[in-house]
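User: Watch each token:
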Amino acid sequence: MNAMVQTHVCTGILVKPGLVVAPASCVTKGIKDQEKFPLVRLGSYDLNTHDGPEEPEVLKTCQRIVHHKFTGKPEEGNDIALLVLNGTKWQHAPIEGMLPVDHCVPNKTMSSLGWFATSRHGSPSYNLVAIPKLKHVEKGECVKALKDKGVPNGTVCAVPEFRAVAEWDLGSPLLCQDEHLIGLVSYAQPQPNVHVPYVYTHVSEYENWINTLGKDASTVRDNPDSEYCRKDPEVPTAGDSATTREEL
């Protein structure tokens, strides 16, 4: 959630206690300092419920870790970031694990969950929505379908079996058997009346980067709000091994 107005901006996935993976294109686009450290709402199914900063399921971002090769343009790849959260009580288990797309298709089912909007600039759905069947799109076919946008390394393409009424949510996960994380929606190039695929950051290709908190390959920014952060010794943070450390 945007920390200033507390509205949904994108979706992320809890991969470890206190650690969320999300698109870098989402968490770096804020102008004000408060927007650079989003609130993370865990386990919610309804955006109409009042989950303010005082609620136990709404946690502040203590540290933002962005892949050092992310240029600000998701179509150039490396659209991945980590959010280190505050809090000591974890009522929600992390996702089962990460899986390469070729370990899921063609024998297993891919699906997605999200707060889908009717367009990239539309309002998110009030309720969490599932898209039950997605098809893997080979890279050559995906490049042809997206035309002006490239398909960089570290990504996979997929498209819903049936075009949904509402289907855009930056960061919505591509799942295998509803359990394992394959990717996070990074971008698309919607075309009128054309069934085009979405490009997902292929998270298994970044698994080592995630597990090492971006060691030697990230830009790190710490939340200056020390009153809420660094209270949980079990939640790791990136140390001095980052490529760049940003200061406020």
